[in-house]
Amino acid sequence: MKMRQWLITGLLAAAFPVQGELLKPIELTDAQLEQLRGRFVMPGRIISFGVIMSSTWQAANGQVLGGQVSMQMQQGMAMPVFNVSLSSNGGRGSLAAGSGQVIGGSGLGQVQGVSQSARSAGDFNVTHNGVNIDVRESSQLGRQPHGSTTLDTSVRTSSLGEVRVEPAGGGVQMSIQAAGQGSSMQRIGGGSLIQSADIISSRNNVENLTQLNVVMSDGGPSVNGLNSAMPLVRPGM
Fold first, then answer.
1. 10 Å Cβ neighbour count for 8?
2. Please, which domain of life does this record's source organism belong to (predicted)?
3. What is the pLDDT of residues 36-52, one digit of tens each?
4. Which of 33, 101, 124, 194 lies 20 to 30 Å from 220 when distance is taken between CA atoms?
């Protein structure tokens, strides 16, 4: 798991702040280098980096509230581009507010690295926090991405509650406030990836997913003529 966390943290550090500063080398301690098993990647080999975050909340009456935000950065682009999509399936009647209480956990939002939490004070709830990393090599860039070069706050409301996408902590945050049912959040950037779900009622289905997409130049030399490679990580490491 440590190997996976170091890889994700390294990608986050390269991707943000949102406004796209130049990549800077990061000095690692001996202990960190031990975890990398001699494998590394120079910033010059990363020709494309993308993040896709999606969150959904399905309540007991079948009502769904959710959204997706994507960020894409390619070699030759001065700024990353963003695309936001928020959705709900309309009103399906009011829901009774849950009576459960989720207490504490404020420190989960201050983690450097990866933090995933799912806390439920109700019955028959289903939650899932997931992170997937796709690392590929290619000799050419894909199609130029289109979108906005600024990330503005986007909000959608329904009788279930509110889903919001906004800049936060040097990165991107997506959150859902389900009225009387609980809340979920995921944030990426500033060296951390945080996913959480707090449920205070019953029969909810909550999901937070993040996909990191990295494309490296195919066999190109890096700094000082060294050929380097990204650590390959499989789920569960």
1. 21
2. Bacteria
3. 554 455 556 788 889 99
4. 33
